[in-house]
Structure formats: C-alpha cells, structure tokens
Please model this.
Amino acid sequence: GYADGRNDLAGDETSRLSPYLHFGCLSPLQLAEAAGPGEFTRQLAWRDFYHQVTAAFPAITTRDYRPGRVRWRDDREAFDAWREGRTGVPIVDAGMRQLQQEGWMHNRARMIVASLLCKQLHIDWRLGARHFMDLLTDGDVANNYGNWQWSAGTGNDTRPGRVLSPLRQATRFDAGGDYVRRYVPELDGLDGVAIRRPWTLPESKRRGYPAPIIDI
Model:
C-alpha cells in the first residue's frame, strides 16, 4: 500500500526508515531487494541520485546548483514564524510542529513547508535547510540539501518555477484535517473545511491561532 498511501499526511503510511538509512543501520540495496520493483524502490533511487549529485557538486550545502534563478529577501520575523509553526497556514504549521516534536516530518509536508518558505516568503533555502539539519533525526546532507534546492528552484528540477499551493495540498493530502489537528491543537475543534481556512472564522474559534503571513 506504500504507493497509494505515502502522500496521506494523516495516515502515516510512509516507511519511517530514513533515519536507519542515514545512520547506515540499513542499506538501500537491502531494502530494494526486499521491496522489489515499485514506488518504494523508486524513492530509494532518489536518495542515491542526490548522493551522486553531491559527489559531483560538493558545494550543494552552500551554493545554488543552478545559480542566478532567484533573489532572496531578508525577513527574520517571517522566518521565525515559519520555524516556530505560526505562519497562520495550518498545513505548514502542522509540519513545522511535527518537526519540533518528533525530529521528523512527513515527506509531503517537507515539500509544502519548503515551497512556502522559498516560493512565497522568498527566504533563502539555506536557512530552511540548516533548520531541518538542526532537528531531523534523518538529517542526511545529500538528501536534505538536494531536496531543498529542488524546492527552491535552484537544484535538479525541470520546473524551477513550481509553487505548491498549501490550500490545494491540504485539500488533496489532508482532506479531513486530521494531520493538522494532531499538531495544531488550537484548531482541533474545526471541521475539515474550516481547518484549512481558519482566518475566515471569528477569533474566538481560532483560539489564538494567528492570521496568515502570506496572501492566501
């Protein structure tokens, strides 16, 4: 069921084997042989791909793989709101709070929070990548920085202008709002529609949850 369930944020149907791969407790070949062809092995191949990229481009942690695409802005207040899970965008804040609480974040959430930081707040991907490395139990240099550059549009991506809409992502991958409820208790009394747009509700129903820091 991995192929069907791996993007279900609330379902928690990923393997959670990334820390064991990172620390060498398991080898990707061992897992690929056990899993056989399919989506799980395809994801293992992405991990190896980024290790090959890093071998060819050791500056992946500090320099754009494809430079000149983006200009970043300095906004410490917005970065702190993102880092602390109080952007006012529930699906993003749920991911950032999962990272704080567990030292791990669902892969789909990683893509969503990185897209918001880089593509909507226009804050340098290096800041986000370093924050991840500070907290992730699976903080692998090649995969973390390679994926951050992919999200920022500076890395290995044929669609560098891609922006993941947090509302559309929440509708597709957390339709009932269960992932948000798990990590954003201020909103746990809201239904699946309201929990995606809490800024439309009276403040009394948001229980202190902030307004969004982006136009949404």
The radius of gyration is 17 Å. The first helix runs from residue 2 to 5.
